[in-house]
Predict the 3D structure of the following.
Amino acid sequence: MCEPYETLNHPIDPAITLLTRRWGPQLLLELNRGSTRYSELFRALPGISQRTLSAKIVQLQATGIIEQVHGTTGRPRYSLTSKGRGLVQLFDSLATFTVQWHWIPERSTM
């Protein structure tokens, strides 16, 4: 749950905190590809432990960023909520900014 506005140093603090914690951005970007099962997320994020992945999923569900859905097979899948999709849009803005201001080398056209 978000802290009352008056107690925050800046209104973007909760989003920045979420985006700077390890595995948060990677998990959101993976879920941006579409809903997926736990085992698929685990394989897509090399180096993450099952314990950490489970904790991240619980955290993101508690904040309303991802949700668990049940497909036709009955197996749970995870997907972004509209709130989560809005948060992922920040990545597109950051990527545009990064390229515009040349924070990454341009790719060779060989």
In short: The mean pLDDT is 85.
